[in-house]
Amino acid sequence: MERRVVVTGIGLITPLGIGVQETWDALCAGKSGISEITRFDTSEYETKIAGEVRNFNPEDFMSKKEAKRNETFIAYAIAASRMALDDSKLIIDETNEDRVGVLTGCGLGGLGMLERTHQILLEKGPKRVGPFYIPMLIGNMAPGLISIHLGAKGPNSSIATACAAGSHAVGDAYKIIERGNADAMITGGVESVITPTCIAGFNAMKALSTRNDEPAKASRPFDRDRDGFVVGEGAGILIIEDLDHALERGAKIYAEIIGYGMSGDGYHITSPPPGGEGAQRCMNAAIEDAGITGKDIDYINAHGTSTPLNDLYETRAIKSVFGKHAHSVAVSSTKSMTGHLLGGTGGVETVFTALTLLHGIIPPTINLDNPGEECDLDYVPHKARKQDVKIAMTNSFGFGGTNASLILGKYHNASG
Asked: Most CB within 10 Å of its CB: which of 139, 151, 300, 327?
């Protein structure tokens, strides 16, 4: 019999706040975390807005020396992991350290470190490149340093599947526990790349919103006037455990992970196929893995990036998978408030999905004033909705045509 896997701890750092409560309250209130970029001079950039994390002090989570050394994405990962571990009340010591692993997703790693170091190299030469350059650049230093800080010595890995990375990390961690290779995993996603080359690169692709005069209204998934996504940053980390392990220690349980699907489009480096065939296969794989039918799903936390193609093609994919039920299931995009955290988004949105199940509150899609062509599903516009949600899906789709879908259920102690 396969082991059941539950969520017992969560940690969030997002453009909406530091910590779970601050973020969740803002999300349910329909607040936007998007504002003008303060990290660098945007005068020559088409896009001047992003979802920056504000009021984050790394020294609240690590020593001053470590805070100075660590790149921002690593600091976010450590901080959110400490939050999640404290929340779970899981104690990691010599009796269980090899049965607790770390698996996180990150799309671009220390891009800011790369930019700064390249400038030093050009201006001052190779001997001025610092010894922390490579360690602070690579994405897998997030799970590496989480392991070092928290003492988790079980399976340790990093996923780099672009915007699907966080969801793939949670899904893969879920499977590690399900097959018995760990009793608990620290998992999720992290990203911090509000940097010149990131914004310039996405601008070159015409992927970003340029609604600079109204930052809070720029991310508008499924709306007729959407003009691209908004880059966000932060981390979403979960402690997930074997159910028996969680019950034995009297853990609080947020939700149960019951299904995971993944697929590849095999179509285009950035564009999804017009019918969303890859997303369809991904969602169907998750539904099959969960042993349910599409009609059992009450809510979908959509990928919903606010780009013209994604929102249309994801809507088409949902209609293909769910048939008539597509118009009965609630669908919302929390990216309307957080922006798109790239590799971190799947971790953050899995936390949101677990909280939706726990509290019976569906976060809204803000800025949905005039639904776009073919975008005619129930996107929970403007205001959060109180609704008993028993089973929910969260989608993440990445460049290269890589897709991930997770299904979470309200926890119940009856077997099966």
From this structure: 300
The residue from 106, 198, 303, 375 that is catalytic is 303
Question: Mean pLDDT in runs of 10 for the chain (416 residues)?
Answer: 93 98 98 98 98 97 94 98 98 98 98 97 98 96 98 98 98 98 98 98 98 98 98 98 98 98 96 93 98 98 97 98 98 98 98 98 98 98 98 97 98 65
Catalytic residue among 149, 168, 245, 340: 340
Report the predicted TM-score, pTM, of the whole model to 2 decimal places: 0.98
Per DSSP, the residues of 165-230 read: HHHHHHHHHHHHHHTTS-SEEEEEEEE---SHHHHHHHHHTT-B---TT-GGGT--TTBTT---B-
Other beta carbons within 10 angstroms of residue 86's beta carbon come to 12
Q: Report H helices in 301-409.
A: 308-322, 335-338, 345-359
The Cα–Cα gap between 235 and 189 comes to: 6
382 catalytically annotated? no
- Residue type for position 346: G
**Contact indicator for 69, 132 with CB cutoff of 8 Å:** yes
Catalytic residue among 28, 106, 149, 163: 163
Cβ contact 178:260 at 8 Å: no
Query: CA nearest 220: which of 328, 310, 329, 317?
Result: 310
Report the phi/psi class of residue 7: left, alpha or beta, with left for phi > 0 and alpha for psi in -120 to 50.
beta
Say how many residues make up the chain: 416
d(CA 103, CA 108): 16
Q: Domains of the chain, with CATH numbers?
A: 5-248 (3.40.47.10), 260-409 (3.40.47.10)
Rounded to a whole number, what is the distance in angstroms from the first to the last CA of the chain? 10
For residue 378, the cross-strand partners are 330
Q: How far apart are CA 94 and CA 186, in angstroms?
A: 17
Give the Cα-Cα-Cα angle 243, 248, 249 (nearest 5 degrees).
105
Catalytic site includes residue 303: yes
375 as an active site residue: the answer is no
Q: Give the pair of three-digit tokens for residue 290.
A: 């969960």
